[in-house]
Amino acid sequence: MKYLDEYRDIELARPLVEELQKSVTRPLRIMEVCGSHTMAIFRNGLRTILPTGMELISGPGCPVCVTSAAHLDAFISIADRSDVRVAVFGDLFRVPGSHGSLANASARGAKIDIVYSPMDGLEIAENNPQELVVFLGVGFETTTPGIAATILSAKNRNIKNFAVFSTQKTMPAPMYSLLNDPELRIDGLLCPGHVSSIIGAGAWQPLVAEFGLACVVGGFETADLLKSLTLLAYQVGKGEPKVENIYPRAVSWEANLRAGQMVEKIFEPADMEWRGLGVIPESGLRIREEYGDFDAEKRLGIELIATEEPEGCICGEILKGIKTPTECPLFDKRCTPGDPVGPCMVSSEGTCAAYHKYGR
Amino acid sequence: MGDRNMSEKTILLDHGSGGLASGKLISELFLKYLDNPILKTLEDSAVLENRPGKLAFTTDSYVVDPIFFPGGDIGKLAVHGTINDLAMRGAEPLCLSLGLILEEGFSLEELERIIISISRACSKADVPVVTGDTKVVPKGKGDKIFINTSGIGFVDPQIDISSRKAQPGDIVILSGTMGDHGITIMTRQAGIAVQGDLRSDTMPLHTLVKKLLARLSADLHTLRDPTRGGVASTLNEIAVNSGLCIELDDQSLPVRAEVKAACELLGLEPLYLANEGKCLAVVSGDKAEEALSIMHGTREGAEAAIIGRLVSGKEGRVLINTPVGGTRVVSPLHGNPLPRIC
Question: Does domain B163-329 have CATH number 3.90.650.10?
Fold first, then answer.
């Protein structure tokens, strides 16, 4: 498959493995921000061949995992309404809020459609004019433009029984909150490849300036990962932090203007609660007043109810990179992918799910 | 007039009543296509000739949606699935039962297509349906058609195939490519058109198994068909039951290019997708090449590949050696495979 096979080519990867092994000249801790990176690193077995002195910690880049329990509870209460049909990405289906998950709501008779795109939700609305179809918007910059396009399409096609519950989050806002935490010590970031294709590699430059962080924007295949980690080790070793973009086949230095304009048209910045991190100012997106008819929160008068984390669950500290899943007393005991307690275990990109699936 | 035509072409509650309508369905549809001396008696149970040895007995229910898909349909699947479950214990399939649960309003034309498909699958595999039952549930209480098939097979007294028999040093062979059935169904359910020829791999494997047994006999230790949960979950069961570790080589896992592409698109792994015409064979290390060449000589196993081996230590684990020289754990599937956000 073009653009994939060549980056997984073992002949290409072999010298990169050797280079990575020799790259570390002083100990370093790298955070992979994105959940897809966490999974790709495990899938390639990279953790088992990391050079001595290099430590990888997983960041807050799994969109399902950072969705607050209050939002999850609101999602479930919407799904339970008899006049509403909910459209949702598959990852979210089994994530527990404080009283069960959407899967439990589905078993009670809630109408929940697992979709692959917000546009599928709009199609469902068109085909079921008697129901209000609510798309549960969860994700970062990678999903926001698609949701914005869907809302625009709903307006253009005059489909009135469609709305979005936006918990969309933005990068790199939470990184500031994390990096100001004295407990967290990191030397470099493996910056999220897909998010960077929208916000541009240049969006990471302020973190270099302010925190002296090494930053590499990398892809998700074997060669991408090996090269990214090697370059991070070089930057840290030389003490010359900067932003390097080795994913130019998808990412440019500048932001994606068209996507940005579309998002800007529909959404405006808002304070957002992140699971484990709390409320971070202007780290989320809400639907603008002008498109208020498509805002499920307004339309259904939803109020968020603050909730407490399940007892013993340390997802918050895991999302901050302060602890690893194996340090959690519930990990692989009371909390498994089949019966998850916290969100990091249920999402396919969650750190706990990755440790459970690939790393035990 | 129009209404009457409609009612004649769909399943009514009467068709499951046991009365005249049921009788008509049996004589004009089921016996028309599934005719054989045992079924024809229409007695309360089939009486079968016995023979010395052991019996294998299995049952499976089929609720696949969509009921017609590239490469097959729910009827063909119901025949092959149960034949394969028998074959995986080294049994020679003797006969099947066929239980249908139909939803009121289901199209008779579609039912006929399914019965024809069952008939063809049975004739081709030479395994007849010898007893059956039909029920109709009110509209909305079912989903078009559900099928249950049970099967009985004879097992030669010398044969003892099970996942507990796997030994250290044994080799794991997969009889063909992974994930063809699972991805075909998932892309259909999602309404996603993927370029290339995605089709279910549904097929009976008892002839392939017979050939393997004839040549390998006691060196064939385990046979499993990696249906729901895919190769990953089935290998985990073999690892747990045998108390051994299975090591796989990432590069040797056979996957069709179009299946791989669809998996990339939907965020799925071929290792976890269902197969309906593949088996995992665990054979003695020194017989691996012979087993592979037997498979390569058949239509069912033409794309068979050695994918791994059983080793002591790390009991109950399945590990993959990745191309960069690392390893990762392959855990069993939890819940349904769901597509990811990004």
Answer: yes
